[in-house]
Amino acid sequence: MTDIVLETRGLTKYYGGVQALEDANFILRAGEHVAVVGDNGAGKSTFVRQITGVEQRTAGQIFFDGRETNHAGPLEAREAGIETVFQTLALADDLDVPSNLFLGRELFKFRLGPFSWLDRKTMRERTLEALKTTAVKIPNVDNPIRNMSGGQRQCVAIARTAAFASKLVIMDEPTAALGVQETAQVENIIRGLKERGVPLVLVSHNLRQVIDLVDRIVVFRRGRIVASLNKGETDGNDIVSYITGVKGSEPAHG
């Protein structure tokens, strides 16, 4: 029985004539938290979009949970057990917090042909439990998302991911637009996932955060993986030298 949760082999993506991702070989093991870092345009988000089915790869293979996968879209990836916080958040502005947490996985009191009755009470109770577990503070969960601050919206998206985390969590720049207090909340959610043994891929520009939170750092540069560094054997200066190209001109196997 392998402990590899996610593996990519030769993952490649072209946009027209532009190669955004080239021959990315990546491994994530059970319970492991790995950061994906690199400059803007290095291929980090492109990498995430291939894994989650937002886009279809040009070449290469993706293996998840022991089998080769080709997710047709984010919903299919989620059904397979991949929970993702995208930079765009993917929240429904006109819906309240429980409706957003259960978007696409609503609970029903009954379903009879075209007639159905949502179990709003249970969804609200479970939402409050999820927010409590993740220490996310939302004054009124019945408010539409559009009435909330950017930080609150981000925390709702992350609470949704953490609440339903099953086999893998991917977070793409989860704290980029957050203040100090909200960033600390998100980092505590990530630590909670670690305690629960949920593997994580964290895309982040914040090297302090990366070094604090993960087991391993994978560096992308110009669409290629150029380093895979164990946290205990590296530091911020070392990581920056790979990001800028001072080190690591040859591709690495992540």
Any low-confidence stretches, pLDDT <50, length ≥5?
A: none
Indicate the percent of residues in helices: 25-40%
Task: Give the DSSP E fraction (strand runs of 2 or more residues).
Answer: 25-35%
Biggest sheet, open or closed, and with what strands and sense? Answer: 6 strands, mixed
What's the CATH first level?
Answer: Alpha Beta
Termini gap: 20 Å
CATH-defined fold name? Rossmann fold
Radius of gyration: 19 Å
Number of H- or I-type helical stretches: 8
Helix and strand run: EEEHEEHEHEEHHEHEHEEH
Describe the structure.
There is one protein chain. This protein is an alpha/beta fold. The chain is 31% helix and 29% strand. The chain has eight helices and twelve strands. The protein has helices at residues 44-51, 74-80, 97-101, 120-133, 150-163, 180-195, 207-213, 236-244, and strands at residues 4-15, 18-29, 33-37, 59-64, 67-69, 82-85, 108-112, 115-118, 168-172, 200-203, 216-221, 224-230. The chain has a six-stranded mixed beta sheet with strand order 6-9-10-3-11-12, sandwiched between helices. Helix 6 links the parallel strand 9 and strand 10 (200-203). It starts with a strand and ends in a 10-residue tail after the last helix. The mean pLDDT is 88.
